[in-house]
Amino acid sequence: MKNGQVQEDPSSFESTKTPPSLPKSKFRGEFPTVLSMSKGAKKGIDFTAAVFLVLILSMAIGAGYYAFKTLDMQPFKEWIQSLAEFKNSFSLPRIVGEFAGKKPLPSIRQETVSARSLIQKGYDLYQKERLDPALEAFNQAIDIDPKNPEAYYWKGRTLVRKDQDTPAMDAFKQALIIRPDYWEALDNIGWLHMKRGEYPQSLSCLNRSLELKPDNSWAYYNRSFLHKKTGNSEMALKDAEKACQLGYQKGCQIAQKYRDTLKTGKSSRN
Questions:
Q1: What pTM did the predictor assign?
Q2: Alpha-carbon distance 265 to 91, whole Å?
Q3: Could you tell me which residues come within 8 angstroms of residue 36 by beta carbon, excluding any fewer than 6 positions away?
Q4: Phi, psi torsion values for 103, nearest 5 degrees
C-alpha cells in the first residue's frame, strides 16, 4: 500500500497474450470504455444495481457518522490542531527576513506559550541576574494567567533584587490572596516588614508561616532576630536552636552567639 492506494503486483496474475490494439476510430476518446467493448451491451442503467449502490453508500455514510459520534477521535482532533498550529506559526515576514539574512526578532506568543513556561523562563533569567527580562516574563505570565500565584511570587522576588520593596510587597500579597497557604510568600512579607522596622507585622507573618510549615528553618532563624530586637533573648535563642536542629547552619552560628551573650549577661549580674 502506498499513499492509501493498493498497488497490484503483476506477478500475482497469470500471463496472457497481449490483446490486439483497437482502432481509435471506433471510440470517442483515446481509450475504449467497458461498455463499448461489450457486444450487444444495453444502453441505460440497471435499476437493481443502482439501488444496491445507493444502499452501499448509505451504509458507508451511516458508519462514518457513528464513528464520529461514538469512537475516540482524539488522534484525528490532535492532527487537525497540529495543522492549525503550523498555520499560525507560518509567518511570511519572518521567512522573508531569514532569506534576507536578518535574524528574526524574538517574540512570545501568548496564544501558544503557557504561563508555566514563561515562569520557568523568568526564573532562569532571575538566576542569571537578568532581572529586567525576568520581570517582563513574569508580567507576561500574569497577563496570560492572572490567578497564578507563582508568577506573582517570582515577580516579588525579582523586585526585591531590584530594591523595589513596595511593589514587591504588593506582588507577595497578591500571591497570598490567590493561595492563602503560600508560606513562602508569608516569609517574604515578614522579611520586608522586618526590614522596615515593622516588627509586630513581621512576627505575625512568620508565626503564620510556621503554622503552615512547622519545619520552616528560615522562619525560625528570622523570628529569632525579631525576638532579639524586642528584647526577648531566651526566645531568640530557642528559635535559633530550632533553626539549627532543622539544618540551617546560620541558625547554629547565631544560637552560639546568643548563648555567649546570655552567659556574659548572667556573669555580669553575678
A1: 0.57
A2: 75
A3: 26, 27
A4: -75, 125
